[in-house]
Amino acid sequence: MPTAAALPDLREWLLEHHGDTVDADRLPAIRTELERIGADDVPGAVVELGCYQGAMALWMRAVLDATGQQQRPIHVYDSFQGLPERGEKDPELFEPGFLRAEPQQVLALHDRWGCTPPVVHPGWFAETLPGQLPDQIAFAYLDGDYYDSIRTCLAACIPRMAPGGALIVDDYADLRANPRAWNGLPGVKAACDDHFGTPSTLEVLMGAGDLAFGRYIAPALPAGRVER
Length: 228
Ligand SMILES: C[S@@+](CC[C@H](N)C(=O)[O-])C[C@H]1O[C@@H](n2cnc3c(N)ncnc32)[C@H](O)[C@@H]1O
Fold this sequence. Notes:
By secondary structure, the chain is α/β, with parallel strands linked by helices. The protein has helices spanning 7-17, 26-39, 55-66, 103-112, 125-128, 147-157, 186-196, and strands spanning 45-49, 74-78, 119-122, 137-142, 161-170, 203-205, 213-217. It has a single domain (4-217), classed as Vaccinia Virus protein VP39 (Rossmann fold, 3-Layer(aba) Sandwich).
């Protein structure tokens, strides 16, 4: 199980071997969110919607373990058939089936680093969500790339967010708030706009490069009300 001292090594290794999906902005941004749910004692699981080969899932496990959150489960979801057909709001960037991975790759990656593997839920989001989601979510990372995928994930996850929990949408490019954001997958922001309404309630996170992260924080319970 990695300690805080091992995180820099893991970071370097992930950047070298999984730089197609994780980068020097995403890793610290996700770490910050996980440290906060630990410090604030936000109840619930961590979920990743669109896990591909499991690089970010591994980082999340390592950060949780290094911050005293060994008991917090991680659930990951993916078609393991790659991307679906794009919708009309998605660009002609990738072929269907691009980013195909195997559940075994996720498990092997965790094994390599001595980490407890996540609970893996193979299947299209429309089939696995919301039924296979944990009842309460402390942190959700949505990385499904396409309009329909993100809408399905938002509809399933938002009602399950614990008070004070955080949900990050990757590839959310709000160019007015962050002109540097990578805007290669505009269906992602369109899905958020249609879910939350405009102007969007998502907070834009900035990085040193072209990070495109939108963050939703679930409202705290009204004073005096206790979550059951
Ligand atoms: C960019 S990759 C995820 C990368 C991963 N989060 C990481 O950081 O390493 C996007 C993934 O979303 C999955 N995906 C997209 N739409 C999906 C859907 N509707 N149902 C299930 N998986 C989907 C794809 O199979 C792909 O593996």
